Amino acid sequence: MDLDELLDSLLEPHAVTAADDGDRLVAMRLANDWGVGVRLHQRGSQRRWDVREVTLRLLDQDASISGSDVRDLPLGTLLAEARRLATRSAALDAAPGAQPA
What we know:
4 strands, alpha+beta
């Protein structure tokens, strides 16, 4: 699964899955207007994540994105939340008896 597929299937406020290469894919809905996808690569411990890819998408297919729209997004906060969700997902996967994501 890639970020586009995860965003296409996003029905909840967020979703996290493990990619085939071990990266975490995090998709989030922002105010029901935006879909934000982040590919994170784990570096060292469970709490260290490098951002590899960010995908922004307006959920209204008839709308367009302007530069000021993107500048208004709280990207720092969104990346921090993606890292938090990835950390939680990795910890759950590492728990004894856990099923792979």
